[in-house]
Amino acid sequence: MTRVRAAALILAAALAAIGLVLIWVARLHADRYLYVSELGAIGEPTAEVFRWAMTSVAVGAAITALAMPPGSLTPRGRALRAVPPAVVLLAAAAAFAVASQVTCTRYCPLPVGPGFTWQDLVHTTAAVVGFVGASWVMLQVASDARLKRLARFSLVAALAVALIAATGGILSLLRFGTELGGLLELTATTVALAWLVGLSLLLATETARRPVRRPEPAARERRAHQRADLPPARY
Question: Where are the annotated segments for Disordered (predicted)?
Answer without folding.
Answer: 212-235
